[in-house]
Amino acid sequence: MTVQYRNADPDEGWSLPAWIYSDADYFAVELKRVIRPSWQIVCHLSDIPQAGDWHGLDYAGESVVVMRGADGTVSAFHNVCRHRGARILDGVRGCAKRIVCPYHAWTYASDGRLVGVPQKETYDPAALDGIRLAPVEHDVWQGFIFVRLESGGPSVAAMMAPYAHEVTPYRFEDLRALGRVTLRPRGVNWKNIADNYSDGLHIAVAHPGLKRLMGDGYGVESAEWVDKMWGPLVDRPSANPSERAYCHFLPRVDHLPDERQRLWIYFKLWPNVAFDIYPDQVDFMQFLPVSPTETLIREISYAIPDDRREMKAARYLNWRINRQVNAEDTELVARVQQGMASSSFSVGPLSREEVALRNFSRRTRELIPEARQHDAPPPGWSRAYR
């Protein structure tokens, strides 16, 4: 699937310019125009099963919390007290029947309502009327809770609509976490990680394990908001012990159709959220921008509970295989970040097969026209976006 767009992109056959992978002005505009309006995963509904359970996400200079209310509903709000702006909750997860600010003990209910103020009689009643923790837009798709800092654009369901029928058999709503969220800092621009994730041409060159597992079957396509990559496992024993054992132990999964029993499939939602979907588990990851040349990869695995020994073995072997793939990708992306620092490189031609990179580049240039320029504008150009 390759989407045809109404307006042709004159730079269709070229990559984004190297300078936007390290420029501070561009990074500031990108946070505003790309990251803040985009959906980001916080957790799964099963991660906050009880009233008061919460998970947090820090990104783009903000701290966001999603919490299960007393009535079972989920709310999302900024982790900032409305009195003096103090951060309220610490850590990445917890349970709090009441949210109490550690500065002056202002107290909020699990839905964000202000329910307690010490020395309340000393405040103007009108000033306290209707105060609540500042809400953050959230969306629940297939059991996963997403937030975005600024409204606009389609829902997660609308973004994933072209592939909804492919996701349905995996029963995302029934998933449960395997372990905890892992944070992996990387000294590269987040776009280099996102580009690499959707790049199919490097698989046969730089990932010998995936090549052994999938042969020539790896594919890439792009819809308007989502990239899809996939590879069916070949019916041929691998020379690698972990790969051979994974294919041997991976048991049949009764809720999956036959054509998905031996299929690895990947989806990347614009611009930086990804799902790796295997018969045995589902991994999600997101590439959170920290600075022009720093990224935090946030990831965790989920699975439908299955105590079979074969399934436990398959999940362990999956981790071993993909740990090697991640190590290979880490080196590759670092090479690209280093090379982009050279004055000899600006843009590169894109193959017609690089549909995902073409789509990412097109959307980026629509949102930030300066991304069409092969060389960086003079410092301070980002002030026009404030």
Task: Tell me the layout of helices and strands.
Elements: H1 24-35, E1 40-44, E2 53-59, E3 62-68, E4 74-78, E5 93-95, E6 99-100, E7 107-108, E8 114-116, H2 125-128, E9 137-141, E10 144-148, H3 156-160, H4 164-167, E11 176-186, H5 190-197, H6 203-206, H7 208-214, E12 219-222, E13 226-232, H8 241-249, E14 263-269, E15 273-277, E16 282-291, E17 294-303, H9 309-340, H10 355-367
Antiparallel strand pairs: 1-10, 2-3, 2-5, 3-4, 6-7, 7-8, 9-10, 11-17, 12-13, 13-14, 14-15, 15-16, 16-17
What does this structure look like?
It contains ten helices and 17 strands. The strands form four sheets. A seven-stranded antiparallel β-sheet has the order 11-17-16-15-14-13-12. The chain has a four-stranded antiparallel β-sheet with strand order 4-3-2-5, with no helix packed on it. A three-stranded antiparallel β-sheet has the order 1-10-9, with no helix packed on it. The protein has 386 residues and is an alpha+beta fold. The chain is 25% helix and 25% strand. The longest helix has 32 residues, at 309-340. The two termini are 37 Å apart. The chain has helices at residues 24-35, 125-128, 156-160, 164-167, 190-197, 203-206, 208-214, 241-249, 309-340, 355-367, and strands at residues 40-44, 53-59, 62-68, 74-78, 93-95, 99-100, 107-108, 114-116, 137-141, 144-148, 176-186, 219-222, 226-232, 263-269, 273-277, 282-291, 294-303. The mean pLDDT is 96. Strand 6 and strand 7 form a beta hairpin.
